[in-house]
């Protein structure tokens, strides 16, 4: 892939920008920052995290994968979509911070959204004769990215027509978030993982891959119901949702079994830090799957959706501890950069910061049960977010390309 190191470096820098926006939000919560509208800042933070960081680096890895399949001229349109997504993402930050949703921020968001449609269409068209175990995960992930847009369109329609109700608003928001977090991000990451494992000779059988894919796909597709259990759903729908979450749990367990079975080969090919990161991400993914399974229990579901801190803790578990850490580790595992001491130290501090962030948010959620505020929580979260920001800055500034 042309300019691969540039795009990888830019993605790390974008992750750093996400952390900067997070620090500003945390500072405003802990102290005061009258010039900043928290809602607008939150919209800038979430949009750039989704498109500028995660979607961008997923596109980079998919194009890298396609480099061994398609001709150079066929890859040009994907490179153009990468540029469009990056440009739209950079427009999102100042536009959302300035005024939230208005013509410029909506235009930028729409451009990034349409780019994902085009990326999915081109990928289907260009790979229709290609068969391997990695491709279904990328196609499945992009499928979820496309259908998640229904939630965005519904929110836009309700805003324009002033027809929003609390149920429709929450349902549309959770629809978008579910198919992004549990669909697009997770499926794309599994595809990247399988592609990485193929490179070291660890290849899943077609039969096992198909079974795990469909178990997770059906679980994710129907699993949207877990996000709206607070609605008055009929018993038969609740049973289907429960069965889907069990299917997803079985699929995840089989994926873990595959990794465990081939752990000896991973030990020979991965550094100790790479293996630790894989276990770190695996723990977060397991927690996500078990939390989704547990949310079928009415009492746990009411607790999860009844307290904002619990929702935030879950979103950070998936977005930061699972997806973002995995994607950053894959950037460093490309073997294109020198693993200098500052890079390694930055990564270790980032892992610590993300773990502490999740621990504090989790404690805040538990304390919420008794309506007790965790002492100095805003200040602690600000310190933790500063740790993550400086860790990412250290990594971004210390990346040096190998002379290959």
Description:
This protein is an all-alpha fold and 404 residues long. The protein has 14 helices and no strands. The chain has helices spanning 4-30, 38-66, 72-99, 103-126, 135-161, 166-199, 206-222, 235-261, 263-269, 272-294, 298-306, 308-332, 341-368, 377-398. The chain is globular and about 50 Å long. The two termini are 15 Å apart. The relative contact order is 0.09. The model has no long low-confidence stretch (mean pLDDT 89).
The dominant shape is globular
The unreliable regions are none
Average pLDDT reading: 89
Q: Which H/E pattern describes the elements?
A: HHHHHHHHHHHHHH
Count of runs of 4 or more consecutive helical residues: 14
Number of strands: 0
What's the Cα radius of gyration? 21 Å
Biggest sheet record:
none
Proportion of beta-strand residues: under 5%
Structural class: mainly alpha
Distance between the termini: 15 Å
- Helix residue percentage: over 70%
